[in-house]
Amino acid sequence: MPKGRRLDLRFVKGRKSSNKTPLIPDLGGILRARKGSKISRYFRHIFEHEKIKRILGTNLAIMILVSSFMPVAANFDTEPDLSIITQETTPLTTEHGIQYPVKEILITQTYKLYHPGIDFDGLTGEAIYPIMTGVIEDVSYSRFAYGNAVIINHGNGITSLYAHLSEIEAKEGQEVTMDTKLGEMGATGRSFGDHLHLEVRDHGRAINPLSILPH
Fold it and tell me: Distance between CA atoms of 153 and 171, rounded to whole angstroms?
């Protein structure tokens, strides 16, 4: 620093800017405004005033803190009715959609190209049941081929054939359930002993009955 000079530091206190804008706005000026909402202009003038900003700035945090401890009042006019409604309930029951046609299952011959079904061993007189619910489509009596046989239509192109029966108790057109007795096992037709021959067809095409029977 050059000799003979001194550093003179002075702290100048900043002057407060005086906000001479009135707290209550001029209603005449607001009403003469062509654009915007008159009400929004009025309240915006008040809340943007410097005095209001200072008040809100110091007290807003206190207001938020106090409101967090205030209990929320339930609106009973819009609350849903929480009363318990009791009613009688119906127990659910399940039923298997498919079953074997005999009670004692002993398969003696499986599905093959030249044997479009499966054979169940048994004794003459044992009850034969439908594998699924349906309607009796055909009842036939013969000394050849399938012998005494029943065909059931299960819908959706699915049919089942029960052959070599000794007795037939079902009638054509009869609706049957899985508890309906179709007839009794026998050895009628081209048979080499007591057994039931079962075939299942899908739109006329023979399929392996074991592919749909329970495993």
Answer: 13
142 assigned to some structural domain: yes
Return all residues near 93 (Cβ < 8 A) that are at least 6 apart. Answer: none
Residue 113: both structure tokens together: 């190209």
- The domain of 129 spans 107-211
Helix, strand, or coil (residue 52):
helix
For 8, which DSSP code? -
What is the distance between the alpha carbons of residues 58 and 39, in angstroms, rounded to a whole number?
26
Within this chain, do residues 112 and 203 fall inside the same structural domain, yes or no? yes
Give the domain CATH number at 138.
2.70.70.10
Inter-CA distances, 159 with 99, 105, 131, Å: 14, 21, 10
3-class DSSP assignment, residue 185: strand
Domain count across the chain = 2
Tokens of 126: 């044992």
In a structure prediction context, what are the per-residue pLDDT tens digits for the chain, which is 215 residues long?
Answer: 545 545 444 444 444 544 555 656 565 665 555 555 555 555 565 556 565 556 555 555 455 444 544 554 444 455 545 444 444 444 434 346 999 999 999 999 999 989 999 999 999 999 999 999 999 999 999 999 999 999 999 999 999 999 999 999 999 999 999 999 999 999 999 998 999 999 999 999 999 999 999 98
